[in-house]
Amino acid sequence: MLEVNNLFKIYGNLTAVNGVSFKLHPGDVFGFIGSNGAGKTTTIRMLATLLEPTRGTASINGCDVLSDPMGVRRQIGYMPDFFGLYDDVKVWEYLDFFANIYEIPPRERKTVIDNVLELTDLTVKRDSFVQSLSRGMQQRLCLARCLVHDPALLLLDEPASGLDPRARAELKELITELGRMGKIVIVSSHILPELADFCNTVGIIERGNMLAFGPVADIVKHIQPTRVLSIGVLSDSIEVRSFLKDQAFVLNVDAQEDTLLVEFEGNHDQQADLLSAVIKAGHRVVTFEEQQANLEDVFMRLTTGAVQ
Amino acid sequence: MNFRDLILENPLLIEFKRNLRRFFLVGRGRKANTGIFIMAGLLYLFIFMIVFAARRDLTVSAISVCQLALLSFIVPAMMHGSIAGERERRSWDMLLVAPISNRQIIFGKFISGGAMIALTTVLFWPMIVAIYPYDNGAPIASLVGQQMTVATYGFFVAGLSMYISSRCHRAFAANLIIFGTVFVLLVVLPMFLAMAFTRGPDQSVVWYFHPFWTVLTMNPTSSGYDTTRAMNSGYGVIQSIAYMVTAFVLLAFAESSFRSIDQRVGSQ
To answer: Which residues of B touch A141 (CB under 8 A)?
Structure first.
């Protein structure tokens, strides 16, 4: 389990991370969302033992980042936002080098390397020199390096940056699979719709403050407690609008060309009743759907865009 | 941290393999390397033939002086990027988050660089073997002393290079600072002290520890040679110890610099 308690990073007058706290359990895939300079990378670097927190604690399975950094390092796999790989080594040698650092016994290394190469779909590049790999393949190799020692926590800082759509889709699948394997995965990204697809928990950070944390659905519900129904009609929209306003659980109705946006506080049964009432009243309905607030809406609603 | 973790099974010894590949891997896709390798081979052969032809007129010290000069250029060129270069190309973070101690990183890189220094030193041995029988009166102790001075001086420059590299974020800046420091130590400082003090140069500490002075005092045919001076220089033993101690002190400083430069959480 990862526990982050009141973590601070202060540089002179600048508070890069301001008392961030959260807990993650095995299998959690956590999307860390924030603008540039919000404090995501600083937080991740503190968890990776690359930066010393000014205050607060963070521990992974009981190992504290300050008092037992070596213990933490054995349990994490860190993929930075920008990284370089060693030239003049082959793919398997690069992984063997890190397997050696992680004290994997020599007789087990070949199997471990073959497994991570297979998982990251790099088996065919086993004997290629690292510098000859494409950007996407280097990204996958970096991820393979993170997995060599079977870490409990993966810290992936902008893992999809610079990847083409196919590579992104593959990475998404891989991260989902890692979550299923029981690892805690922290992913920071700007591509919010993608994060929503595979993260079961998200955290929104701005100016070092964690504005929201929890499952995506809970955060959406928190910022938007009522439903928004989008109703497309062929009838006179002004007439339908006034009809809808008189219905139970309807709070507000906005018209956008042929579509009516209804703010509704009822449950799904009452939503079905509303549809039925509209049709019974003789209005011709062509579409009727609940508009789901997505992660992007949540992000835009919660943050101001301010940077430090 | 034991000898095995630090030296024998240090994962960073992969650097030696990388260095060998960087400089000596030839073949398809390595046209530049192949070209340089062939040129260097021809140049080495050419120099060896000159040395062999002039073996009666040369002394072992001449070769030792060449070795010192070469190491003053080769070692900084090879080791300036050992840490600064990793920071620059962003591979450093991945090493720092791995469970490897600062000491293992520093020693692994130092040993890998040291192996290249040893290789460079050994390349000159065929020339020494060709000259030595004609270098009348040179005791074997002077030959061993000179080679020891050369090798340990190389390690000192390697330690200096690693220390400066550990303090820099750019490999090129590290390279400039290392060359500048070596130039000051070998040229500017002795000149300044020679001007500032009127006492004999061999009485100055700077001269005493100057590798070129040390090597030349052991040369029987040089004008500066006499048995007393060769004995006084201790056939390079004191200097060699001083170079190695300084190298290790610099490595210790390099090891402790990580924390302040990278703000890394402490490790053992």
So the answer is: none
CB contact under 8 Å between B18 and A142, yes or no, is no
Backbone angles phi, psi at A208, to 5 degrees: 85, -5
- Is residue B200's pLDDT more than 60? no
pLDDT of residue A119: 87
Interface pTM (ipTM) of the complex? 0.77
d(CA A287, CA A185): 39
Question: CA-to-CA distance for B204 and B211, rounded, in angstroms?
Answer: 13
- How many residues comprise chain A? 308
Q: Is A70 within 8 Å of B267 when comparing Cβ atoms?
A: yes
Handedness of CA A166, A168, A171, A176 (dihedral sign): negative
Residues of chain A with Cβ-Cβ distance to B100 below 8 Å are 101
Asked which of A2-6, A182-186, B34-38 is least confident by mean pLDDT, the reply is B34-38
Mean pLDDT of all residues in chain B?
Answer: 82
Contact of A205 with A32, CB cutoff 8 Å? yes
**B82, B212, B218: which is closest to B158 by C-alpha?**
B82
Number of C-beta neighbours around residue A33 at 10 A: 29
Pairing assessment for the beta strands A63-64 and A76-79 based on DSSP bridges: unpaired
Task: Give the whole-angstrom CA distance, residue A103 versus residue A8.
Answer: 32
C-beta atoms of A80 and B90 within 8 A: yes
- The DSSP code sequence of chain B is --HIIIIIT-GGGHHHHHHHHHHH--STT-HHHHHHHHHHHHHHHHHHHHHHHTTTT--HHHHHHHHHHHHHHHHHHHHTTTTHHHHHTT-HHHHHTSS--HHHHHHHHHHHHHHHHHHHHHHTHHHHHHHGGGSTT--HHHHHHHHHHHHHHHHHHHHHHHHHHHH-S-HHHHHHHHHHHHHIIIIIHHHHHHHH--S-GGGSHHHHT-HHHHHHHT-TTSTT--HHHHHHTGGGHHHHHHHHHHHHHHHHHHHHHHHHHH-PPP--
Closest of A77, A23, A2, A29 to residue A177, by C-alpha = A29
Q: Which of A78, A24, A2 is nearest to A199 (CA)?
A: A24
Residues with Cβ within 8 Å of residue B182, at least 6 apart in sequence: B72, B76, B157, B160
Question: For the residues A154-176, what does the mean pLDDT come to?
Answer: 84
pTM: 0.80
- Distance of residue A176 Cα from the nearest chain B Cα, in angstroms: 23
Q: What are phi and psi of A159, to 5 degrees?
A: -70, -20
Q: Where are the beta strands (DSSP E) in A158-226?
A: 184-188, 201-206, 209-214
Residues B42-69, buried b or exposed e (16+ Cβ, 10 A)?
eeeeeeeeebeeebeebbbbbbbbebbe
Strand partners, B221: none
